[in-house]
Amino acid sequence: MKYIAVVGITSSGKTVYLAQIMTKIKEVLAKANLTVIGTHEEVDNFVRDHRIKKGYPLPSGNTKDLLTMPLPLNVINNKTKQKYTLIFYDIAGENCVNPEAMNKYGMFIENANGIVMIIDPKQFGELFNITEDSEDYDDDDTASPEKVAEAMYNAFGATSAEGGKCQVPLAAALSKSDILKDYLDYNLNMFQDICYEDYDTFGFHYEEFCNINTEIEMLFKKTRSMQGILLDNQLKQCFPNHGYFAFSALNVKAETKAG
Q1: Do 172 and 119 meet the contact criterion of CB atoms below 8 Å apart?
Q2: Which residues are CB-neighbours of 258 under 8 A, at least 6 positions away?
Q3: Which residues have C-beta within 8 Å of that of residue 68, sequence separation ≥ 6?
Q4: Cα–Cα distance between 177 and 250 in angstroms, integer?
Q5: Sheet holding 2-8: strands in order across?
Q6: The pTM is what?
């Protein structure tokens, strides 16, 4: 079994992201020469309850004090015939920094074989010069990205590991990246449509990843924003096997609404 923890603060877009992953995962894995040979009822129910449809509001996320039902998938490697069970967990980032909640949910972080850390650009209001008027975010930085990363690092007890670093792969993904077009260069790779035809020959679009990863790293260095510096340093020191990604719910059957 392989456990994948999807972590992000409430309203970060984590549940929408996970719903899209579950909807498209058969096609994505097929292009990596893997076959989903069975999904469990929990996955079917999750996809049904979190459909993204034009003209309808985006699905609501899970509350920070509840753990969504784990989402298991049975997968087989078409070449080696080796079978895997992938289990995805939807974990609110607030639960990672609350000591009481961490006792309850920490095991899902500690036993993870991979982590997807969803970061809302509005958590970097200083970096992107975003004026935040939503009640979903306040001046309390308890669940700031670097503190969530620190809490996850501590969950692994990685201070006793070789070099004091956690080798579990971590994907730090900026959600709602479309809102950054008003603050960054529109020509950046993270704003360009991906040509999915390339996936006919590549299981993972490595060049595309490298471009976006480099852009985000350079953004942290160029702006010298303390928010970006803290997160980047935290990941480099604690999770050296990490990379930066960006995604948006636009153009996935969602509709942009004014106001």
Answers
A1: yes
A2: none
A3: 15, 46, 62, 89, 90
A4: 9
A5: 34-39, 71-77, 83-92, 2-8, 114-119, 170-174, 242-246
A6: 0.81
Determine the structural domain holding residue 212 and report its residue range. 2-246
Q: What is the CATH number of the domain that holds 39?
A: 3.40.50
Biggest alpha carbon distance in the chain? 52
The answer to whether residue 98 is domain-embedded is yes
**Tell me: the pLDDT tens digits for 15-26?**
888 888 888 888
Tokens of 112: 């993870």
Residues 101/65, Cβ–Cβ less than 8 Å: yes
Let me know if residue 251 belongs to a domain. Answer: no
The C-alpha atoms of residue 116 and residue 242 are separated, in whole angstroms, by 10
**Radius of gyration in angstroms for the set of CA atoms belonging to the chain, rounded to a whole number:** 18
What distance in Å separates the CA atoms of residue 102 and residue 200, rounded to the nearest whole number? 41
Residue 240: per-residue pLDDT: 92
Cα dihedral sign for 127, 136, 257, 248? positive
CA distance 139 to 200: 46
* Dihedral sign, Cα of residue 72, residue 22, residue 2, residue 94: negative
The answer as to whether 257 is a domain residue is no
Residue 258 lies in a domain: no
pLDDT tens string 77-100: 999 999 999 999 888 777 667 666
Q: Does 259 score more than 50 pLDDT?
A: no
Domain count, the chain: 1
